[in-house]
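Reminder to self: tokens first, then the designed residues, so the page reads top to bottom the way the pipeline ran.
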């Protein structure tokens, strides 16, 4: 029931997933409304079922208050299904704060994890990188960034196929002496881990592929993500405007159409599905509020990959092997 175009687009994506992926999908929300949306589809796969939830949490509602007051919201019901073992993973394009709050309270955190982190897959010149955290924990301690690095490395190996992920700490300079006391201490702690820590990376390095995993606090990460989204939209609009300027540029655009389509596909967040909320004792994928049906389907695909890749058990094992030093 969450997202800019819910529930129609979410239902469409769920139907696509049930048709194309080896998964069973449970749609959680107001049953009558969901049935009306499903009626638009000629054939609904039997692997797709409904779970009624009488309430919904709006995108502009306070996460903590709404999660406590709306016990029968689709987000809370979804978390309860995961808690009871009725489903293996949950996917939502709704209120991110509410999803983080409900999931953290309902499923709790993994052994050894003190704060959850939202990881986002970003396209780079050499493939893709993982940025963590982009909004779950905006005021962490330095040792929490070590946990983010461990979780990001595990996810990068299990889902993205990176054999030995290189980890970088997002900072204002490459030198170890740069940054705030917080980032300096995080640097010192990361150096003491068995992770392949590559040191500090600057904002200009995010999209070059210099690191497989880039670690930061949720405040910086969320701003980085939102600036990147805005910049991508502005560049696309400016490019479209210039290519339509005269017949010559229009002809060049036509000849380059296949290249533009490839570039658009690589830059499209819908290809990556959603962002895993790492650190909770369950599998949770948070999709963009403006997700298309394809993005929802890919979010479900990523959730299934996280389950079959045993990401959470690998995180717990990696934490046990990593003596996380205290500040």
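Designed residues (327 positions):
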């Amino acid at each position: 029931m969450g997202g800019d175009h819910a529930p129609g687009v979410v239902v469409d994506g769920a139907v696509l997933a049930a048709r194309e992926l080896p998964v069973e999908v449970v749609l959680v929300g107001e049953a009558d409304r969901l049935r009306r949306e499903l009626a638009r589809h000629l054939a609904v796969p039997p692997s797709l079922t409904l779970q009624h939830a009488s309430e919904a949490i709006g995108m502009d509602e306070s996460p903590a208050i709404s999660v406590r007051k709306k016990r029968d919201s689709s987000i809370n019901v979804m978390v309860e299904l995961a808690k009871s073992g009725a489903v293996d993973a949950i996917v939502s394009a709704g209120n991110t704060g509410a999803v983080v709050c409900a999931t953290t309270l309902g499923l709790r955190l993994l052994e050894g994890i003190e704060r959850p982190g939202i990881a986002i897959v970003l396209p780079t010149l050499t493939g893709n990188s993982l940025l963590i955290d982009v909004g779950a924990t905006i005021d962490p301690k330095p040792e929490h960034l070590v946990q983010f690095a461990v979780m990001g490395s595990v996810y990068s190996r299990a889902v993205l196929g990176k054999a030995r992920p290189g980890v970088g700490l997002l900072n204002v300079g490459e030198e170890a002496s740069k940054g705030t006391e917080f980032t300096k201490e995080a640097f010192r702690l990361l150096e003491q881990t068995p992770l392949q820590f590559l040191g500090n990376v600057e904002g200009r390095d995010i999209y070059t592929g210099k690191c497989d995993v880039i670690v930061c606090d949720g405040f910086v990460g969320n701003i980085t993500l939102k600036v990147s989204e805005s910049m991508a939209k502005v560049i696309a609009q400016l490019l479209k405007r210039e290519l339509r300027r005269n017949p010559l540029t229009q002809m060049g655009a036509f000849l380059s159409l296949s290249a533009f389509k490839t570039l658009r596909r690589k830059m499209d967040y819908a290809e990556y599905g959603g962002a895993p909320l790492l650190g909770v004792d369950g599998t949770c994928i948070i999709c963009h509020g403006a997700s298309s049906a394809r993005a929802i389907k890919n979010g479900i695909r990523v959730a299934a990959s996280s389950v079959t890749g045993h990401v959470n058990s690998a995180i717990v094992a990696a934490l046990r092997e990593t003596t996380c030093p205290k500040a």
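The longest strand covers residues 117-124.
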